Amino acid sequence: MANRALLVMDVQRDIVSIADDGSGYLPRLGRAIDGARAAGIPVIYVVIALRPGDPEVSPRNRVLTAAVRAGLFTEGAPGTEIHHDVAPRQGDVVVTKRRGSAFSGSDFDLVLRARDIDSLVLTGIATSGVVLSTLCHAIDLDFDLTVLADACLDTDPEVHRLLTEKLFPQWADVVTVEDWLKTLAPR
């Protein structure tokens, strides 16, 4: 059996305040986290945080430059904290990245190798950002992949739909939180 981990990516206070559409995203994500913990699946949080002064941000990086101008992602700022509704618990790993993918500018790969994890269950904000970037990177590293479609969120619902219904199924199992939780139940 694969060694799985549930990834909770970029579910930070400022990002949630921008993207949450009132559809019950955080409670649904919380059910996935609780289910993973109950099944003994590690929960790994991934956050984006940039050093004060943003020395790692190139003016050629449109996404990060815009985020910096908007005052987002500064390391240590309250808005960069993981949202309290889905906060890590003792024993959960928190990985800090400096780019879109969980693998870029972080020790994420080291954490996965140390735990012999070869299967990832992806959740997070935004579907077109961290989820897409991490999924593409993980494909090239030969991870077994699952995307919890309703535990991903994007500011553009049509982009979310296109990715979770058309693109991601080519590379990963795409299921709902409830369907994934059923696979964790003892038989």
UniProtKB/TrEMBL annotation:
InterPro entries assigned: Isochorismatase-like_dom (IPR000868), Isochorismatase-like_hydrls (IPR050272), Isochorismatase-like_sf (IPR036380)
Pfam family, one: Isochorismatase
All copies of domain Isochorismatase-like, residue ranges: 5-179
Protein origin, superkingdom: Bacteria
GO molecular function: hydrolase activity
Keywords: Hydrolase
Family matches, as PANTHER family: ISOCHORISMATASE HYDROLASE, PEROXYUREIDOACRYLATE/UREIDOACRYLATE AMIDOHYDROLASE-RELATED
UniProt-recorded name of the protein: Isochorismatase-like domain-containing protein
Highest classification ranks of the organism: Bacteria, Bacillati, Actinomycetota, Actinomycetes, Kitasatosporales
